[in-house]
């Protein structure tokens, strides 16, 4: 099983996903709609103030009224820009806590509050899993993964221990490897060296990776490349430290091997191509992605066998 503890070039978003595009537009309005209105009011107030100074006589009633209105609009806009986001966040938080205090059973209250306090979201997850044969018993699993994270809170936050861990299976056919771990944040790039890739009792992990600090709405893309020696009939599991929206997994097998992807989620995966699986939903931390494969020849033979009592 592989675990991403943070908790490669960015792949483009899936085209034609109208529902996701609509959600994105709504999200942009929620983030910037009120602020846009406040800025417009501020600029309108400035225009009124300039007009009163340029075109109306000093001490005239019209000028006094127009200046008063302009100043009121400017002050209202400044107050709106300054405290709207804070008050809105606090209001939503208080309303949420009040609602879960009455609606949910005690066993779920803490879990729902934990979800609500999420500050970082993986907004895009593209994973490719490719199998190549070694012999009749073993194969090699090569994984490339690109994950884009966004700070969805209103204040700066950080990914303190970015990293990845994979298992070592001690097979005679070869060893597991972390081939690449890096992240790109704007103009900054950090890449793990051999000193950062360390052995555990039964696997490999990244240590001493540079902390990732994110401002509100800022993004970072983490790229991972790993390799494991697996059996011809086997599975590979991934769990993540942060919620992951609509993960997409592409599988590539070889002749005689069938592959399948399942998400640890209430809905099944959607097959959007001959070998591409996507989840229409959000995986919570530690909900797994399972990549399962098996030999078609072994499967046919097994299904023909008479079950033993």
Could you characterize the architecture of this molecule?
With 309 residues, the protein is an alpha+beta fold. It folds into two domains: 2-13 and 119-304, Immunoglobulin-like (Sandwich); 18-116, no CATH class. Helix content is 33%, strand content 35%. It contains four helices and 19 strands. It has an eight-stranded mixed sheet, with no helix packed on it. Strands 8-9-5-1-12-19-15 form a seven-stranded mixed sheet. A two-stranded antiparallel ribbon has the order 4-10. Strand 6 and strand 7 (188-191) form a beta hairpin. Helix 1 packs antiparallel against helix 2. It is elongated, with a radius of gyration of 27 Å.
Q: Which descriptors would you attach to this protein?
A:
309 residues, alpha+beta, Immunoglobulin-like, 4 helices, 33% helix
């Amino acid at each position: 099983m592989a675990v991403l503890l943070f908790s490669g070039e960015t792949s483009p978003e899936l085209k034609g996903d109208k529902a996701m595009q609509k959600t994105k537009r709504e999200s942009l309005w929620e983030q910037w709609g009120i602020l846009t209105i406040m800025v417009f009011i501020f600029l309108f107030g400035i225009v009124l103030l300039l007009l009163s100074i340029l075109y109306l006589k000093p001490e005239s009633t019209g000028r006094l009224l127009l200046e008063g209105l302009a100043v009121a609009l400017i002050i209202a806009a400044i107050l709106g820009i300054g405290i709207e986001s804070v008050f809105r966040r606090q209001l939503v938080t208080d309303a949420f806590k009040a609602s879960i205090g009455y609606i949910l059973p005690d066993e779920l209250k803490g879990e729902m509050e934990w979800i609500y306090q999420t500050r970082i979201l993986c907004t895009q997850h593209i994973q490719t899993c490719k199998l190549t044969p070694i012999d009749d018993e073993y194969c090699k699993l090569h994984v490339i993964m690109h994950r884009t994270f966004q700070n969805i809170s209103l204040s700066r936050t950080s990914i303190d221990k970015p990293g990845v861990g994979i298992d070592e299976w001690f097979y005679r056919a070869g060893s597991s490897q972390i081939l690449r771990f890096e992240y790109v944040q704007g103009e900054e790039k950090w890449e793990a060296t051999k000193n950062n890739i360390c052995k555990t009792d039964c696997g490999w992990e990244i240590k001493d990776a540079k902390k990732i600090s994110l401002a509100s709405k800022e993004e970072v893309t983490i790229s991972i490349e790993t390799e494991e020696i697996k059996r011809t009939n086997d599975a590979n599991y991934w769990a993540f430290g942060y919620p992951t929206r609509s993960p997409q997994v592409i599988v590539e097998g070889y002749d005689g091997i069938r592959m399948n992807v399942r998400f640890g989620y209430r809905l099944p995966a959607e097959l959007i191509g001959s070998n591409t699986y996507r989840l229409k939903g959000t995986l919570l931390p530690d909900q797994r992605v399972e990549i399962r494969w098996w030999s078609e020849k072994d499967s046919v033979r097994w299904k023909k066998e008479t079950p033993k009592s």
